[in-house]
Amino acid sequence: MSRKKTEIDKNILETLKYQIKIKSGLECNTFNQISWLQQDIKKSVNENLSLQTLNRLFFLIKTSFNPSLNTLNVLSQYLRYSSFAEFSHLNSNRNNDKKHSSFELRFILALFSNINPNAESDLILQKVIKNTFKISKQDEKTFDGLYPSMAATPFGRKFFFEQYINMDGLDKEYGDGLKYYMLYADTKEQMLFATNLLCYRYFLTSDISSFSNYFKLINNYRVNDVMTFSPLLKGQYHATMIFAQYFGLRLDAGEINLNNVQTQSSFYERYFLAEALVLTNEFEHAWSLLNSGSTPSYSLYPSDDEELATQHDILWLISGFYSKRINFYRAMQIYSQVKDKPMKFLSEKLYTLFLLFLKRDLLYKTINLNEINSQILHLINETKFIHFHSYAKRTHEKYEKSLMDINGN
Q1: Any idea where the domains of the chain sit in the sequence?
Q2: Would you give the end-to-end CA distance of the chain in angstroms?
């Protein structure tokens, strides 16, 4: 009986092969490299794929047949997906036509390959990464291969991905880069970090289907395990749970107990959770959380991070104003103090959107409303954070109720 040809989307198959090359660090264009790939697959997932199968996959042996479903499942597991079906779903409708690194990008990879991520000179290394981000933002096409290159090194994963989180690039190059980061993630913490941010991406872009698929991975984590992770990871995990509740998804761990977070969490946990509460219009909860320190104030932030302090202040002001804990005139006073302060350069667009909504509702008598709405729309179109359309509606409802209270109606 003749063998039936497996039906596979050509683009998905090419994406699979490209990610295998990134994961293995091999071009897969010689019989010797295919042999190394075979050994790496065996080591990673304890599955044997024949050299003939792999040679056919990368066209070292000519064939008219596609790989079998079993082969595709093994290759997907090698890339840390549960099956080829999951790989196909999570990689469809995305710009996966990435170019291989140019000489300049290979140079960057070589430059960082032997750098110890635990070195003492963190400040110097962070400055290098910050400058790299700035250059890449100016010419994104030239830096097509930057994210795969950075994901391949411990230094790149720690500093480029984990310490400089590009919130404004979540639905662009940084969000796509997280998939390369996941290829090299070798701990539960690293996988949770990337998956949390992908959930954040699909929340902000209102892609409920993609959010649900990545949320399933997070929902498999045991809460007791997550509580042993870093404050940043715990905060991001709690934020994902808030987004899931907003979408009406079932939480295996049950609803978040905000009282526990208030009394036990660090600043960073409260910050990420408060941001999620503000984004989901839970202003009263966000206000309570941001004032859960020993001294209620909008200055509960690490004193050495002025930019993070500004963003904390913005969240504090939004939650206080829309929950009616800060009156209209006090809110205007605080807004004038924070609007020109420095913000994280990788989340300026996100927090500028927050400020524009405040400006619209606080300075409605003195501003050109059409101009403000145009600025908001421009940033939403640029970031693809269409969630802010519904956010705008909900905040304006809160604002109109506040006006009614001021006027005694």
Answers
A1: 10-91, 103-164, 257-406
A2: 82
